[in-house]
Design a protein that fits this description.
With about 500 residues, the chain is of the alpha/beta class. The chain is built from 15 helices and 18 strands. This is beta-N-acetylhexosaminidase.
Length: about 500
Amino acid sequence: MQHLPLIPAPTRIEIADGAFRLVATTPVSGELADLLADELHTITGARPHVGGHGKIRLRISGEGRSESYHLTVTEHRVTLTGADRAGLRYGIWTLVQAVRRSGEGWEIPALDIHDAPRFAYRGFMIDVVRHFFDVATVETLIDRAARLKLNALHLHLSDDQGWRLEIASRPELTAKASGTAAFGDSGGHFTQADYARIVAHAASYDMIVVPEIDLPGHTHAVGVAYPDLVEEPVLTREMLDTVEAFGGDVPVKGEPCTSIPVGFSQLRIHHEPTYDFLADVLGEVAALTPGPLVHVGGDECLGTDPADFAYFMERVTTLVAGLGKTPVVWHEAGAAEGLARGTVGQFWGLRSNDEQVAAKARTFPERGGGVILSPADAIYLDMKYDEDEPLGLTWAGFVSLEQSYDWDPATLIDGIGEDAVLGVEAPTWTEKLTSLEELDHMMFPRIASAAEIGWSPAPEGHAWRTWTSFSGRLAGIAPLWEAQGIAFHRAPGVDWR
């Protein structure tokens, strides 16, 4: 069976004989016609005429499942119908991927596609704390992720190494705690206008932004701005070993953190000014964010008493819910009994399915929420590909491209079936990443695995949902990625020729 270079794999596809010939004068008409014309120009070098009754016709029907589309290509006409604007846009990305060389010209093979996402949430995360990335870089990553039908950007905005979002009611956060990054590199922050620009750019691709203020650990930077709100660092032998191995200074309360150990920082939990601070910060974050989700961390609170942790997570998730948002937390917070009902858990453990970790994750659907799956040894995109990779980290092991594709959300965690899974998210942490080129190298092509796992049907019964098919389609999409300027890694196991 012929497998066109389409990623993610469509739900249903039939390929016929013949092709639609693209020429410089091919007219495009309908909604989002300018977008398709721009995309075709990137590939072919010629921008089609927009308007009239084009041979390529685009429309939104207002019918069918959200984000779905129907694409039909014959020798004489291309018809693309989206159930909504997002569906039409996703159909455009598929259409663009199908364009291929034909002699000195270009063509689209005759086909019929009915397509819709398996999961509603298909995300990627960028850590802008360990190293800061400006608005233009974030917008570029949105552009690239959207073309793989991802629809959520999780922005990790606060951590030990810095604070990255202007909070008008708490100006010291950016005045004192935003200037540095990991290993003493320069930092930065987003003004509220910057953040609004990112949100608007994402929305133009029908993508939401999920801001994260990591609490109650990962909060050393809060103490640089407001020392009264944090405890003294808890420095274990393991944390000191991390500092020695990777560099930077041992954390000191009130001074910027230049190293990358985790679990040493904590807010003062039984201190009412802490909750005044959180009301200010989360109130502004929620007001700036039109999307439904606000992430409040809950991970790696290694020095926090379990009872104090549960008390804090109950208060902070209740606060977020009271702001009209759905709280999202890392899976460790499932141990807290009093979480606001409907809180979403994000799993970042390993695929070994440790029972203690699984038990925490299972609490979220039991309490009216769901889970977002980010298995670290599959789609943490900052993990090294192999022992020869100079970038990234290895705490979750080496993660090859094939390994990033070798898992299924419905069977990842015992007791969490497909109905409880909201979707998939591929995080990129940036302790060792400092530029767009390095982000490209680590994210691509593995982000394509996450995109296909989030969008496409389960492997059983779908001929394209195999490693052999996926690797072949990746090779076919490489020229498009080159045309789009993506500095992707030519990972072993794919015949990139």
